[in-house]
Write a structure and sequence with these properties.
about 90 residues; alpha+beta; 3-stranded antiparallel β-sheet; 3 strands; about 40% helix; signal
Amino acid sequence: MKKLLVISSVLITSIGFSSALLAQEQQRQKRKPPQEAYTLCEDKTENDVVNITTPKGDEISATCQMMDDQLVAVPEDHKPPQRQKR
């Protein structure tokens, strides 16, 4: 009986952990750039360079790139999210 309880606990914990990782990955995939990133590239063409002003007042260079059939400003130092190995 004790063995069954331990196995059940491990199984339930594993399922919960897997569900949390899946939800986290789905959330990461759904993130979109802020509206300002789209606005900066209005009337621009792909690979045009634009400047982004951060909330702290810093200037960042960005390039207009296609994302989901829309141009969006992508900062030069932007790194795409890393997919977790399974």
